[in-house]
Design a protein that fits this description.
Shape: globular
Largest sheet: 7 strands, mixed
Number of domains: 1
Mean pLDDT: 92
Structural class: alpha+beta
CATH architecture: 3-Layer(aba) Sandwich
CATH class: Alpha Beta
Distance between the termini: 33 Å
Strand content: 25-35%
Low-confidence stretches: none
């Protein structure tokens, strides 16, 4: 495996949109109320805009795009807006790799934040396994935080 987690360009938006759509739509198979996803998850213009603004990332394996992420850095907090992996590549460690890379590529970050739907057992277990702590929840979302170690 030759994995790279890189900023995506606008030319990657179409491929990443397709992966995003298939990934989020697959949640319906594991308890999601309907197929669907976060705002813009299946829109090429949205992903193009995110690439232009420097928030869109891609995960490649031997040059093939297999997943993506939206990352938002503000001061010393990194919000992991979403990560997604093509369903045919689930359970290969790609999600863990992307999360670790996102955490490692911004050494100035003191806190990582994210949220995921309450009903999504798969993603809630995933983030907990990676050391994220639930900080609050509402009817729809569980909000997580991971504070970096103070040296």
């Amino acid at each position: 495996m030759s994995l790279q987690f890189l900023k995506a360009g606008t030319s990657d938006a179409l491929t990443l949109t397709g992966i995003s759509k298939r990934s989020f739509d697959s949640d319906a198979l594991i308890g999601g109320p309907i197929s669907g996803g976060p705002p813009g998850y299946m829109a090429v213009p949205f992903h193009t805009k995110m690439a232009r603004q420097g928030h869109l990332y891609k995960l490649t394996d031997e040059g093939l795009i297999v997943g993506g992420a939206l990352l938002f850095l503000k001061n010393d907090v990194l919000n992991i807006g979403r990560i997604f992996v093509a369903p045919e590549h689930f359970r290969k460690g790609y999600g863990i790799f992307m999360m670790q890379e996102a955490e490692n590529m911004f050494p100035e970050v003191k806190e990582y934040t994210l949220d995921t739907p309450v009903w999504n057992v798969r993603t809630n277990a995933f983030y907990s396994k990676l050391g994220y702590k639930e900080i609050k929840r509402d009817k729809e979302f569980v909000f997580y935080s991971k504070v970096t170690k103070v040296i």
